[in-house]
Amino acid sequence: MLDLALHAQHGPVSLADISERQGISLSYLEQLFAKLRRSNLVTSVRGPGGGYQLSRDMGGIQVAQVIDAVNESVDATRCQGLGGCHSGDTCLTHHLWCDLSQQIHEFLSGISLADLVKRQDVQQVALRQDMRKANGAAPHLDKIEASAVE
């Protein structure tokens, strides 16, 4: 999703391009983006020049929403929060780990894709990836302008 947000200003982004830049298998991306589409976080554009685009402004998409959409977890417990980690009962630190999981989710709920796109370190990595993809040629992503995320 961050790769999509970084490249959204150029139109729909193909999963093949994301796969190449991020080193993630195309089939796995297809599975993830099907879930993201069902959660209304992305829309697909068919045909030549098609691909995916964000369904709304990147400032309105929180990292926690993305994680929830693809059925991933930020659960810090060994029992996935079910409480059966100690011979079928909760362990001594169960509630501590549940509280940590909640804190992580709240933290990620406060970070939008726009927040990440604005980060200098994220922009530098994106530039490096684009340069690598272009085999040393001038990258099409010169610098993410602040206006692109507003």
Can you offer a commentary on this structure?
It is a single chain. This protein is mostly helical and 150 residues long. It has one domain (2-149): Arc Repressor Mutant, subunit A. It has seven helices and two strands; from the N terminus they run αααββαααα. It has helices at residues 2-7, 15-22, 26-38, 63-69, 94-109, 113-118, 120-133, and strands at 42-45, 51-54. Strands 1-2 form a two-stranded antiparallel ribbon.
Short characterization:
The chain is mostly helical and about 150 residues long. About 45% of the residues lie in helices and about 5% in strands. Strands 1-2 form a two-stranded antiparallel sheet.
